[in-house]
Specification:
Structural class: alpha/beta
Strand content: 25-35%
Strand order of the largest sheet: 7-4-6-5-9-8
Largest sheet: 6 strands, mixed
Number of helices: 7
Bound molecules: adenosine monophosphate, magnesium ion
């Protein structure tokens, strides 16, 4: 099988996955979820024409020539209903959010007025009709859809939901995710330190990547490179919506993951992608589970999660924006490159008046986790590049943050 391009592999994954289902949550539990129903306004807001300022409601015709003097007829606070009609030569003291009284067609803020005698205000500024009035229904109109299905629930969205009194609503279900590490060389977190072993960092780095998507994954532990033991672990893993298997996916004689999952009925879609770090990446499906066979090298595992697993899980969670945000940056140093795969280089970003500057976080070996720990983003070196120059404009995919985008954002 040919090595797939990154976009081809991602295309196959995104065609395969769909939303995981729908459930009802309360407003208090909903941050980070995605609406599975449209939400409508249950009243006009503001409910009537209201003042946008602390000031005076008046007739704009009365202040066409200034200074003008007006008599205060009443005080209107937010929550009060006006009792009187403003006639020629009159005004009403009004607070922000209070209803504009009959007769008045404008508000002037208190800073543009002065009290020249008891209950007599002098107005020093001309105001037009409608000045500092928020019109009924300007914020939202009764019955209108204010949030579409597919909206990601941010704190701002929570505010809108609370405004329309949406206490419970439908959101997309979060997929259940299991993580399995494989390899005879691996040392568990609670095992004694053995210099001949490799600490199992992948289970935990992957756990954190899944947690950052708002999902609490289940760690299945470490399976030895033994087909019988592996089969037992994988069988358990296939009870989840998403199974992430670290290691054992390449073509070594002890790489049993691919044959074993195939034996368990997983239909393999691909197992080689032209990506660095991370080319032994496998993807397969059953009717219930999406299986990602991630490379064992720690950076490769994390980069493959970034590029392939994040968009898949976000689609399952109902998100419309699947991809990490990308920014343009100037390269702080040259990059040597042999064309033939898309490379993701770990970089730190700084900023000057000209925008972002990207600098490598150090050794870029696929085992060098420190390069990932220090990174703000992944610089994308296109497949056909023959190298990058210092100062060249490059695309960097941000590794952090809750803002995602519709498009992949880089040329592979
Ligand atoms: P593999 O993909 O199984 O050939 O693994 C490649 C290399 O990745 C291994 O030699 C280990 O050094 C490393 N590795 C595999 N699994 C893990 C893991 N769970 N945590 C840390 N390193 C790992
Ligand atoms: Mg292995």
């Amino acid at each position: 099988m040919e090595h797939l391009r990154v976009s081809e592999a991602l295309g196959i994954i995104l065609e395969s996955v769909s939303v995981a289902g729908v459930e009802t949550v309360t407003l208090e539990q909903s941050l980070g979820r995605v609406l599975a129903e449209a939400i409508s306004a249950n009243r006009d807001l503001p409910p009537y024409d209201v003042s946008a300022m602390d000031g005076f409601a008046l007739r704009s015709a009365d202040v066409a020539n200034v200074p003008a003097q007006l008599t205060i007829i009443e005080d209107i606070k937010a929550g009060d209903m006006p009792g009187k009609t403003v006639q020629a030569g009159q005004c009403a003291r009004i607070m922000t959010g209070a209803p504009v009284p009959q007769g008045a067609d404008a508000v002037i803020r208190v800073e543009d007025t002065q009290e020249v005698a008891a209950n007599i205000m002098q107005i020093d500024k001309v105001v037009k009709s409608g000045n500092d009035i928020r019109l009924q229904g300007e914020g939202m109109k009764n019955g209108e859809v204010v949030l579409q299905a597919g909206t990601e629930i941010t704190p701002g969205v929570i505010g809108v939901l609370a405004t329309v009194k949406a206490a419970r609503f439908a959101v997309y279900r979060r997929p259940r995710v299991a993580i399995l590490s494989t390899g005879d060389e691996l040392e568990g977190m609670h095992d004694p330190v053995d210099p001949n072993k490799i600490p199992n960092s992948n289970s935990y780095a992957l756990m954190a990547q899944v947690q950052a998507l708002g999902i609490e994954p289940v760690l299945l532990g470490i399976a030895r490179d033994d087909p019988v033991e592996l089969e037992c672990y994988l069988r358990h893993g296939l009870e989840y919506d998403v199974l992430l298997v670290s290691g054992g996916t390449s073509v070594g004689v002890h790489d049993y993951v691919r044959p074993t999952i195939e034996k368990l009925g997983v239909q393999m879609k691909f197992w080689r992608v032209a990506i660095k770090p991370g080319h032994p990446l496998a993807f397969g499906t059953t009717s219930n589970t999406f299986v990602f066979g991630l490379p064992g090298n720690p950076v490769s595992s994390m980069v493959c999660f970034e590029e392939f697993v994040i968009p898949a899980i976000r689609r399952m969670m109902g998100n419309l924006r699947l991809h990490r945000r990308t920014v343009m940056a100037r390269l702080g140093h040259p990059v040597k490159f042999r064309p033939g795969r898309t490379e993701f280089i770990r970089v730190q970003l700084t900023q000057d008046a000209g925008g972002y500057i990207a600098n490598s976080t150090g050794t870029q070996s696929s085992g060098a986790l420190m390069s990932m720990a220090r990174a703000d983003g992944l610089l994308v070196v296109p497949f056909d590049s023959t190298g990058l120059l210092e100062g060249e404009l490059v695309t960097v995919q941000l590794l952090d943050g809750t803002v995602f985008q519709d498009e992949i954002g880089f040329r592979e």
